[in-house]
Known about the structure:
Blueprint: E1 6-10, H1 16-27, E2 29-33, H2 52-57, E3 60-61, H3 74-90, E4 94-99, H4 102-109, H5 120-133, H6 135-145, H7 147-152, H8 158-171, H9 175-179, E5 191-195, H10 199-215, H11 218-226, H12 242-249, H13 255-280, E6 286-287, H14 297-304
Parallel strand pairs: 1-4, 1-5, 2-3, 2-4, 5-6
Helix pairs in contact: 3-4, 5-6, 5-8, 6-8, 10-13, 11-12, 12-13
Amino acid sequence: MSELPILIAGATASGKSALALALAERLNGRIINADSMQVYDTLDVLTARPPRADLRRAPHVLYGHVPVAAPYSVGQWQAAALSEIDAARAAGQRPIIVGGTGLYFKSLTTGLADIPDIPDSIRDGLRDRLNSDGLTALYGELERVDAALAARLPPTDTQRILRGLEVFEATEKPLSVWQAHPQDPPLSDYLGLLLMPEREWLYARCNQRFEAMLEAGALSEVERVWALNLPPDTTALRALGVADLMALLEDKIDRDTAIAQAQQATRRYAKRQMTWFRNQMSDWPRFSEQDYENNFAKTFSFISK
């Protein structure tokens, strides 16, 4: 039991990174990132990646290792995470996987669908159609070819709409059908911890953290990304606050509006995360304590059993 990987899931600003660090110091752990935005470089502050002081206290991996312009899939993350879990064990370290991206955790605990590689010609063709026909038309097509998937997606989710269409076009089988038959889970034994703090406390943390991010240079990070003139479906552009700060840089909104919009988007995202975790990880032990780095006795006691 004491050698099992520890998986810590929680909403943005829930304190999971601080808890992971406290446990890593106590258990000689290696912290493995499971947040789909923290994998990207450039957006260190805006994606709340651990600061340098924390990196010196315990090993941290899979943070900022992907260029901000590059695509990055859950399959790529799964392969990298499993490699880091093996490396941690070989080094005598406890793997501690922490983040807020539920699909990353599910890829470890339930497996991924064995979908064939998508030809570049199909991927490029769909992006050309996105530019010419618009996202609404593509979402309508997804409703026709994979109604089950479309029902789960908002019509503004460019990345997943394109993914659904490219899988159908390449395989002539809906992505929802592929997903219904995943491979065997790569992690059969683990300790899962789900952080579910009180909502008002979490919302206040979301608000405070975004203001702290601005003070720490988040706007400069977004300015560097803005200068790259990336395609609108670039995954990294979905990081919380990017769209609002880009609108600020383009003089479309003022600073106060950008802050208010980004804070609201963060709160809504945290709410969606908590709902998803409740539904998809209903069998994980839940911990509602707050300020976990200073109050993790209950968690540590559970892990030590």
